Amino acid sequence: MHVNFRSLHRALAELDPELRGSGRTVFFKECRVVHEPEQLKNVQSELVIVPAQLVRAVHSLPAAAGYICVNQPGQSVPEDAVPNDTQMLLVTSELAFETLVQRVRECLLAPYRYDEMKEGLLDALAKGESLSKLLGLASRYMGNPFVIFDNNFSVLAHSIPDDMEIPEARKVAERRSANLDVLIKLRDTGDLGKIQNDETQPSMTNLPNGYQKMTCALSVGHRHIGILCYYNYQKPFCPEDEELVDYVRRIACAYFQRGNFNHTDLWSPCEYFVNQLLNNDYTDTFVDQFKERLGLSFPAQITALLISAAPSERKRKNVPTTLIAQALRGWFSGGCICVLEDSVLCLCATKKCDEAAKPELWADIRAFLKENRLFLGMSDSFSRLSRLQEYYAQADHALTTGIACNPQDMVYPYRAYTLYHMIKLLAEHGDVMRFCHPAIETLRAYDKEYKTEYLECLRVYLECNGSIADCAQRYFMHYNSIKYRLKVIQSVCGVDLRDPNVFVQLYLSFKILEVEQKMEGYDQTTLLNLKLLDSLE
């Protein structure tokens, strides 16, 4: 084993040591703690830790690989007690001798523990562990938490312990974003761009709460993708930390290089704002103040558009989010574009979402979706940004259900799938088929017995809003023929189709059947596709 005394001196700096010796590297076979003079025998190749009173008690110490003398304040050690060719480090502290010995041993073994940490990080990276697990592994060895922010200062991963009580750390872990006040200050001082584009070694920053952090940029190739921060929340920084933080940086960059990391090039106040609304519940008053501090403005009426690919492509992380974001910025120049994990969200003026009023715009959008095998979900119009989570869920549901039920459409307004959403919510609380009108099952059994198609006739009649003429046109049949069929249906089922309550119940029953059939087939197909992808991987 070996140790450089000058490095050891720096590692023990918080104990107020005084350095003696040249600071050269010392090679030793064993580190021994000595309490009695008779134990000072055959120590030529050993690193010896002794209390200072023992040094004063003997005339001259025998030659050893090196000595570490632990001294109490106000005491002195004779200059001639240590042979000229032997190094000695004098550590002066009020701490107990055993405590200091433990601290010294930790410092001696630190380089070997760090080698173990590097090997562990490489193994974890090769096994495909998550970024949070990689940071947690590094923190176990180094003693302090890491946080990785993307360019929009949202938290990608962190190793902040659950029991850490430092308010700033808890806020970052819970809100999964950097502190708003810090970002505004950095933006106003012009330091934001410098931090995001600095690719040098880790730099030290003093924090307002009295702690410090090391910061370094993360990049893949020439693309800047985020920032790695290391905080001294649990123990003071030591000299080796800068080198080790840089090693963790390289591990994180290797992690991102292996995956399809979606990123923005620079901090976008609008994107930061939307991310916060999606992940936190805020009052209208707070949202207005938040928006004002960031200098943002939104249209009076907003619609949320969500674009993504089919589930199998999402599983493979094969969603061209950068391409989607660029296209959306061209179509909705005044909108807010937010790149999410496997989709892109756009908040734009509702008037631009009227396909009839903007035929050229929506023709371009549909052509883009078709060319790239993408789909678009559209929420209802809204004005209260504090309810963004609700309208994002609408767009997401329209997207998911639309792909399952009508993949050829590509654009799915939520209004067209509201009933589907209601049925899906009912299904989450039990068997939704129990809400079907009993006439459905009666007519199904009648058709099976008498080889008729009255159930389908009833479905078309309901879809035609009760118009016999429209139903006859759909069926290419005479008006009276449809009228006769409807008379038989009412007689067999014991219902009056002129009753609005009966009409709505029957229409809803057919929607339940449609959702159950299409979603079941969609889920089975998706499951097969995902299993195939897993087998290929």
Instruction: Give me the side-by-side strand order of the main sheet.
Output: 2-7-6-5-4
How much helix, percentage-wise, in residues? 40-55%
By DSSP, the count of extended strands is 17
Low-confidence stretches: 522-537
Categorize the overall geometry: elongated
Biggest beta sheet attributes: 5 strands, mixed
Strand content: 15-25%
Question: How would you sum up this structure, described in words?
Answer:
With 537 residues, the chain is of the alpha+beta class. It has helices spanning 5-11, 52-57, 97-126, 131-142, 167-175, 180-189, 191-197, 241-258, 269-279, 284-294, 311-315, 321-331, 359-372, 388-405, 418-427, 438-450, 454-463, 468-475, 479-493, 500-536, and strands at 2-4, 17-20, 25-27, 30-33, 46-51, 66-71, 87-92, 146-150, 155-158, 203-206, 212-220, 223-231, 302-308, 336-339, 344-349, 375-378, 411-413. It has a 5-stranded mixed beta sheet with strand order 2-7-6-5-4. The longest helix is centred in the last third of the chain and has 37 residues, at 500-536. 31% of the residues are buried.
